[in-house]
Every structure is written in C-alpha cells, then in structure tokens.
Monocopper oxidase-like protein SKU5 (Pyrus ussuriensis x Pyrus communis), 284 residues
Amino acid sequence: MGSQRYQITGLDSASSLLGHDKLMIGLLLKFFINMLIHIGDTLFIHFQKFRTNLGRKKIINSCRWNFSAVTVTDVYVILNRPAEVINGKWRTTLNGISYIPPSTPLKLAQKFNISGVYKLDFPNILMNRPAKVDTSLINGTFKGFMEIIFQNNDTTVQNYHLDGSAFFVVGMDVGVWAENSRSTYNKWDDVARCTTQVFPGSWTAILVVLDNAGIWNLRAQNLDSWYLGQEAYLSVVNRNQNENSLPDNTIYCGLLSSLQKDQTQRGVKFSSAPLILACAAFIR
Ligand SMILES: *[C@@H]1O[C@H](CO)[C@@H](O)[C@H](O)[C@H]1NC(C)=O
Ligand SMILES: *[C@@H]1O[C@H](CO)[C@@H](O)[C@H](O)[C@H]1NC(C)=O
Ligand SMILES: *[C@@H]1O[C@H](CO)[C@@H](O)[C@H](O)[C@H]1NC(C)=O
Ligand SMILES: *[C@@H]1O[C@H](CO)[C@@H](O)[C@H](O)[C@H]1NC(C)=O
C-alpha cells in the first residue's frame, strides 16, 4: 500500500491557518481521491503484472506453494453476463441461474434433512437452456481441489468473493477460457486471497482446497448485481465428523419456525422487527 499517500503532516499549524472543519473536509477528500487512484492503480498494475509474470522463469523456490502435482477434483466454468429479464424481473445470473434465498436457511435445512429447500445441482458450465431463478448449490467434495474459472461476459470488472476458504489465482487473460488456457497457469507462487477481479471479456482461474466443511457464499461484490442474484453457495460436507450442535439461541425460520423458542423467556425482549431482521441476516 502506498502509505506515503495517507501521511498527514503539519496538522497543528495548518489547522490554525485553515480552520479545523475545512481542513478535515480537505483531508477526507484527499484521502478518498487517493484511495480511488490507489484502487485503480492496483487493479491495473495487478493485471499487467499477472500477464507478464505468467511464463517467466522463477529462481526463488523456497516456502512457496507448488500446485503442479495436484489433481483437480471438480472444475466449474462460471459465466456472468449483463442483467436480463427473468419472469418479468431484472436479474443477474451465474451460469444462467439467478440465486434466490430460501425462507428456510440453507444450513438448517441441511442439518434437519429437509429436502426441497435447495438443490445440489449447480452446473459445471453454462447450460443450453433459458436462464432461471433457483436455489442451486455447488456440490463440493470435502478435501477436494476445485478449479473455478470465472468468465466475464459483461462490460464491467467483476469482483468475486468466496467465504470459508482462501483461494489461489492461477491465471487470467483476455478472451474465452479453453482447456489449453491451463498451459498459461502460474501454479507455484500464487498468493492466497478471498476476492479476485475478472476483467470485461476476460477470464480468471482460481484453485481452492475444500478443507473447510460448511455452506459457503460465492458472490459478486457489486451490491446491485449481488442483490439481483449473482451469487451461489458452495456446500462442503465432511462425512467423517459430526459438526458442533446448534447454539441455544439459534433462530429458526421458514419450515422450522415451529422450533423457535420464546425469546422473552431468556430476559431478552424482541419486538417482531429485529427478529425478522435477524432471520433475514441468517438467510443471507
Ligand atoms: C513443482 O512441482 C513439480 C512436480 O512435482 C516439479 O516438476 C516442479 O519442478 C516444481 N516447481 C518448482 C518451481 O519447484
Ligand atoms: C439427517 O440425516 C443424517 C444422515 O442420514 C443423520 O445422521 C442425522 O441424524 C439426520 N438428522 C436429523 C436431525 O434427522
Ligand atoms: C455431492 O457430492 C458427493 C461427493 O462429495 C456425492 O457423494 C453426492 O452424491 C453428491 N450429491 C449430489 C446430489 O450430486
Ligand atoms: C458476450 O458473449 C457474446 C456471445 O458469445 C459475445 O458476442 C460478446 O462479445 C461477449 N461479450 C463480452 C464482453 O465478453
């Protein structure tokens, strides 16, 4: 980070000259403008560096990840495109599926074996069928090695975030990803991250080790397109180990709302509004 950009010097003399409010507003403006420039720079430099680094010979070899010998267990090519109208509403999609959160939280549905709340059928590639709204999860393999290629068919940069595991960005390029794009991957000094950029008309490939059981959110960071459905969940089940039991204050919603304990018994007064909010937060 360009720390010099954020340095504030001569605050005392300057504040007596300018007046404190004006100075603070000025400093805040400067901070935000610098931050924007910095973000822009980082994106650009990162893209340039990545493209020139791929294929370049490396000398330093110690303390780095080397994925060359890894066997990938699942491959997903996930395509986004500009918002489209599905059932009369503007929606965004991943592989033609616009995510809709169920009224029964995913994790509760899984824990209580309630079928029909979600499906584990998120497609590996864009299917030749009309786009739809659905609660479709990616079926991950515990301790598997997943390769995800984000293909951006929109005209804006997409930022994707994955909960639950850090991943490694192994490649990115302009154009449409193909099997032989793998030959350009950098597999041995990647940096662990949880968010990555995908440039317009370009692809970005990540590798992720699924060693953290749970149901994890994979989403676009842009709030508008995330809200419109540009997200999916990744389910990873460890069949050999029971998960911790649910905490006492779990909020049961949807099909499990009959299990909801009376919150007032515990000396906490809930009006209905915060309870609904908490419920909604749990669904997200
Ligand atoms: C990475 O591992 C592969 C296969 O095990 C090996 O051939 C290669 O030399 C390694 N690369 C580096 C840079 O250590
Ligand atoms: C859900 O199903 C699993 C495996 O079939 C079982 O071990 C578990 O006890 C079930 N849980 C509930 C709450 O019924
Ligand atoms: C999900 O993947 C597991 C292996 O991790 C497999 O046993 C299971 O059948 C899959 N479920 C579905 C619905 O495809
Ligand atoms: C999106 O896909 C369409 C159809 O394949 C193609 O014509 C268009 O160039 C793509 N746009 C971007 C930005 O990738």
Summary: Residues 61, 66, 68-69, 188 surround 2-acetamido-2-deoxy-beta-D-glucopyranose (ligand 1) (CB under 6 Å). The longest helix spans residues 20-53. The chain has three domains: 3-53, 74-237, 254-283.
